[in-house]
Design brief:
- The protein is built from 4 helices and 29 strands.
- The chain has helices at about 70-80, 285-290, 390, 395-400; strands at about 25-30, 35, 50-55, 60-65, 90-95, 100-110, 115-125, 130-140, 155, 160-170, 170-175, 195-200, 210-215, 220-230, 240-245, 265-270, 270, 310-320, 325-335, 340-345, 350-355, 355-365, 370-375, 385, 400-405, 415, 425-440, 445-450, 455-460.
- The protein has a 5-stranded antiparallel beta sheet. A 4-stranded antiparallel beta sheet has the order 1-2-3-4, with no helix packed on it. A 4-stranded antiparallel beta sheet has the order 5-6-7-8, covered by helices on one side.
Length: about 475
């Protein structure tokens, strides 16, 4: 039981979860692979436009397999007429529908622009080449107060109708119905925006929302809208609202509508547990080199000044139901919180940016109809769980001491752990205990995830 990512090792070929930003996930029953697609991004690798692809047999060990879009599709997606071409494509989502694979991806005028397009590209193979079928939503020549055609995700309602979820902090998160046979928009007008399902409350200081995704969970009877608030280089987070209908309204823990009343239930943010022996390339070991499947790396691929600083900005993720194991996961990017990889961005609002990003896969469970994440990245552990109250009656539970941290709803600063008694507000009958690989200490361990009575997420693990 080992995780698939290794910090401070900056070679995508040997450490494939490195450089994955805005990742998606799908299971392909034809090939027997899980496929993940992400934003065009390169930190140490040669840059190429065209949607990077990774695949895995177990959601732990991945391999980088190339790029999805054909040269023709790239040229079409880049073309902005008299304006400079789009440099990179963002946030792809792929699914198999009927006998083809459909990829929805974003092409924007420039970073930070609200003028964008979401293209649909199709292929007979999950590894491409994908060819463009057409534009699904176009927000060029619209004001910043209206939605941005970016960050696509596709979801199905109970009747099998398909919907595109998209948008960002400019005008909020929107949903519009798709035509089943083609995957294009049901309304032929590509300027038709659909319905707003999330928007930042007036007066909130946290940027967002963006990076939205919706999933229907029959076991709970709810649709869940996941989204991110914050600055992606530092204090990004993951939040959720739920609804009985795919088009909303989506409500938070307190019953507030996400279209201007509530930010959503916060599930994860920047965090730091105590790390005595982190799973990183600070001092390479044979077992670490083995997990990435290649020979020992050379010194330039890591930074000798590296020191564990927690994880920054988990966000822009997708909920994923694995039909093989009938389990739920949440797949997102996260940034290495080491100070040596932080730079101070200059501008009207100076802010920190942590540069080194990775894909992280977490188990996702449900408590009283609300999702919770494992505090640790998935390492192949079995899904067996019990409540914290039940576990404390076991021999190990009676003597356990916990290290824990809490995510405040309105405060996006990094959450640091503490070794104190668990808070009285934690309902132990509504917190779940499970096995994990303790990333910060490179060993197997036991962790829990739950909520306080007022809806603050708490993560903990045995000291």
């Amino acid at each position: 039981m080992k995780p698939g990512l290794l910090l401070n090792f900056h070679d995508r070929a040997q450490n494939p979860l490195f450089e994955s930003h805005d990742p998606s996930m799908m299971w392909d029953d034809r090939s027997g692979y899980y496929y993940s697609y992400c934003t065009d991004s390169a930190i140490t690798s040669p840059y190429r436009q065209g949607i990077p692809i990774r695949r895995s047999k177990d959601l732990v060990s991945f391999e980088f397999v190339g790029y999805a879009l054909s040269d023709k599709a790239v040229a079409q997606g880049r073309d902005n007429g008299d304006y400079p071409p789009t440099f990179g494509f963002w946030a792809p989502f792929v699914e198999r529908c009927r006998e083809e694979y459909r990829m929805y991806y974003s092409a924007t005028r420039a970073f930070g622009s609200s003028e964008s397009r979401i293209w649909l590209a199709v292929s007979k193979n999950p590894e491409g080449p994908f060819e463009n079928r057409g534009v699904v939503i176009d927000t060029w020549n619209t004001p910043d107060t209206q939605p941005n055609a970016i960050d696509p995700h596709v979801t199905d309602d109970e009747q099998g109708c398909k919907y595109l979820v998209y948008g960002s902090f400019f005008g909020g998160i929107f949903i519009k119905e798709l035509e089943p046979a083609t995957g294009l928009a049901l309304d032929p007008d590509v300027k038709y925006q659909g319905k707003c399902i999330a928007k930042k409350p007036h007066g909130s200081y946290i940027d967002g929302p963006e990076g939205a995704a919706v999933i229907r969970v029959p076991q709970t009877g709810y649709y869940y809208l996941f989204l991110s608030y914050g600055w992606l280089g530092d204090d990004y987070d993951i939040r959720v609202g739920r609804s009985r209908n795919v088009t909303g309204p989506y409500l938070d823990w307190e019953g507030r509508d996400l279209t201007g009343q509530g930010l959503g239930l916060k599930l994860a943010g920047s965090y730091c547990f105590t790390a005595k022996n982190p799973w990183a390339a600070e001092a390479p070991r044979e077992d670490q080199v083995k997990i990435i499947g290649r020979e020992r790396h050379s010194a330039p691929l890591s930074n000798s000044a590296w020191k564990f600083g927690g994880f920054r900005g988990p966000g822009h993720g997708v909920p994923f139901h694995d039909p093989v194991t009938d389990s739920f996961f949440f797949v997102h990017h996260v940034r290495d919180g080491a100070a040596c990889f932080c730079r101070r961005d200059r501008g009207p609002l100076p802010r920190d940016s942590y540069r080194m990003h990775y894909m992280m896969v977490r188990r996702m469970y449900f408590i009283d109809g609300w999702p919770v994440f494992s505090p640790e990245p998935f390492a192949g552990e079995e899904p067996g769980i019990m409540t914290l109250a039940e576990w404390e009656q076991t021999a190990q539970g009676k003597t356990a001491s916990w290290e824990w941290l809490q995510f405040p709803l309105e405060d996006n600063r990094i959450a640091h752990s503490q070794n104190t008694p668990l808070p009285e507000m934690l309902n132990k009958n509504k917190a779940l205990v499970f096995s994990c690989f303790d990333f910060e200490n490179s060993r197997t361990n036991v962790a829990f995830s739950g909520f306080t009575e007022n809806g603050a997420a708490i993560w903990g693990k045995i000291i």
